[in-house]
Amino acid sequence: MPGSVGRVAAMDPVAMGRFPALRVRNYRLFWIGGLISNNGRWVQFVATYYVIFQMTGSATWIGAAGFASFIPMLLVNPVAGYMSDNLDRRNSLLWVSAVSAAVSSLLVAAWVVGVDSPWVWVGLFFTRGAVAGLRLPIWQAFVSECVPRRYLRNAITLNSTQFNAARTLGPAIGGLVIGLAGPGWALLLAVVLNGPVIVALGMMDRTDLNRPSGPPGAGTTGGRSILADYRESIRYVAASPGIRTAIMTVTLIATISNPIVTQLVVFAEEVFEVSPFWFGVLGSAQGLGAVMAAPLVAGELGRVRRSHLQLAATVGYGLAVVLFGLAPVFWVGFLALAAIGAMHLTSASNLNSSVQLQVDDAVRGRVMAIYLMGVLGTTPFANLAMGWLISAFGPRPVVTTGGLLMVIGGLVLFVTGRLQRLDND
Asked: How far apart are the C-alpha atoms of 398 and 403, rounded to whole Å?
């Protein structure tokens, strides 16, 4: 292929170092822009959940906010997959990112005018979730356009790494800004940080993107409706044992882990009894662990069988969750969350790679949308359930039990031979 993608593809990956994907200009722009803008996402995360908890003092309301964030992702999921495979992915990301900035501005406006109804804020969470649901499948599929196939696994790992690097800095920045100036300024900072990824997408060389053959959507839908197209994608997944296993595994992990992240503010204020800044630091722990694990995941662990790596990641993830649930003091909880972050990066990169390496490009966006259903499908309801359970029984026993269930689930998937399907190409 002409341009830098082709030149990089011709080079020896060993000579290029551990992160060859970053040598590709388009991917490098996307990675840097995403890193900066995802910091804004996590600043906003800390600020909005802090506002809800200060307003209500209730884990149940935190769970409701988590439900409102994730349920619209399910509703827009078929549309997002269709957009990814039938529209220009770069242009779609540009427009969706601009809408995300507009929604972030609404959150600032709500704070400025003094909206104190949790129902209004939950409604804003819903709107934000709908935009995120459109963006995620397109983002995941677009990675494959930025690099040649031989660097795809490296690019996926780096994509997860930048997300988690932002997850390290963003919450700490958000907590610091809240502590010094209040939630409103943190929300405003999140608006500003939407900009870099938009700039990065605008600076890309469109002729150097590794696009599917033919124009967007060519030969994929044949004029079918979005729902008919989505049903065909479900049949594609059903016929792919490795993709089915990846979805099953990510569903298990997300059902338990995602609500824990939502409830961190409860642990910060009621279990560890720390300030907003230290709540932000606690929120950054998972990102720190992921960043520290990234060189190993991108390098040596890239040569481990995906099934064996997933077994270790899932069981390790569950044990780290147990440790967090039992943590007697803040710093033990911080270290447990760092271990969770390392396991999350390992698992997410491994499962994402397994799917991307087993899918045809013509249906990549729609299949990634279905894969993300594994992340999103149970999460809204798990948030509601965990919020209610924590209110009823306390955070420690609920989180500890969740970790044990993850360990058991990972062992069952391996013993029954399902994880071994991840090794298919």
From this structure: 9
